[in-house]
Amino acid sequence: MALDWRRFLLASSADGRLAACVQVKPHADETLELASLAVRPAWRGRGLARRLVEQLLSQSPRPIHLTCRSGLESFYQKFGFRTLAADELTPYFRRLQKLANKMMRFFRDGETLLVMRLDE
Asked: How many domains does the chain have?
């Protein structure tokens, strides 16, 4: 889904192995999405995700959206993201949230998919 290596910000270990990544993904409606944030298990808990998000946000225009499971809401709020109400969602994010929440009922105990946005 719109994976283009030129949009990715990477973090690697001293020996050159990939430790973490994130991207800003453009959508057809011209919205931007912070996406594909992933940290290898051995590198979790060291602040890599925070540093990648900070770096990405320092060079990205606003507004910028993201989707995340509800359990990560407080992590993204630290950067200034806020959860959008249903009437604030673009058609793309509305469809995605509806579909994801149906699937998450079976796989994620009580969690939902949030759509968040950073305006400033």
From this structure: 1
